């Protein structure tokens, strides 16, 4: 499928949240409702204001958004001082899965990482998604690391 | 051991690189030499200029830097629009290991993440470091994800 990639604009946020929520894990943690919770727009504005964050949408020939991902560029002292790219929040529309859209998205992120001079590109994938692990391995990623997370509650302070 | 935490300044970079290089994996990929490769200072300046990145040093009672870590704060649309903190490049001086300095560093990062309103704190740890996995589990992290990496070469474009 021929796709166009572009940076997301505020008018895209509702459609992006619709895709984030239409997912095994996303349906538990997202809230796709009208009106959309203001926290989504606030997060979009923070991403949009940060030159080291890009929220990228994939658009089909009819203008419909059918994929999304966020790429963060981070400078590090490690590896002799270098930039790395981190991919997060990858989703494709559930009605068009299996058509290589995810692969096109990730290859676009790899291209952006190279353009930005990154030495490394990385992501974490939930161990509850074995298909995603194989998908990323097929694109050239290696699961060399454990991805460790901790939820924070303000009341734990 | 009583430690003080503060943001790193440019004069700290050489000492930080000394610690990064004094490590099983770091000795292969870092270059601690005089003069220090300019790429380290360039990376420091990029970190220092970015309000969403903090390079934090742990200082002992004599003023000596004995620990370092980088914390990156990133806004995301996922999880109903939220910020998350990522810890990277954690090192403690090899002569003072086993004295709880690493634990103090990570707890400081958790505190900063809460102050910045993060809903999640995360890191990846190399599967070649089983002790590190247990260390982070002891601090409350869970290895729910695979941490996938891909090295990039400009010539692959």
From TrEMBL, chains A, B:
Domain of life: Bacteria
GO CC term, one of those recorded: ribosome
GO molecular function, one term: acyltransferase activity, transferring groups other than amino-acyl groups
Keyword annotations from UniProtKB, A to Z: Acyltransferase, Ribonucleoprotein, Ribosomal protein, Transferase
SUPFAM superfamilies in the cross-refs: Acyl-CoA N-acyltransferases (Nat)
A Pfam family that the UniProt record links to this protein: Acetyltransf_1
InterPro entries: Acyl_CoA_acyltransferase, Bact_Acetyltransf, GNAT_dom
CDD domains: NAT_SF
Stretches assigned to the N-acetyltransferase domain: 3-157
Designated name of the protein: Ribosomal protein S18 acetylase RimI-like enzyme
Organism, as annotated: Planococcus koreensis
Organism lineage: Bacteria, Bacillati, Bacillota, Bacilli, Bacillales
